[in-house]
Amino acid sequence: MPYLRPVVLQPVHLVFRTPTMLVMTVTRYIAHFVPFVVLCIGFPMFGAAVAQTYSFERKAHAFERKAGDASPRFHKSEHVLAFINDYRDEKSPDDIPDLVHAMVRLGVINDPEKSGVYTGFLAGVIQDNQVDAPGMIAKMFPLPPAQQVVLIKAVVYSELPNWKALLETFAERMPARKVMIHRYLYGDGKALSGLPLDDGFTLDVYWGMYFATGNWAPAVRIIDALQWAGEKNDVEKLTIGSMAKWTYATNATRDKNLLDLAKRELNHRPEELRGHLREVIDAAELFETRRLREAALKSIDELRQKGPQRVRDLNTWGQAGQTVLALGCVGAAALGQAQFGVPCVLGGALSSAALKYLLPKP
Question: Please, is 307 exposed, middle or buried when counting C-beta atoms within 10 Å of its C-beta (0-12, 13-18, 19+)?
Answer without folding.
Answer: middle
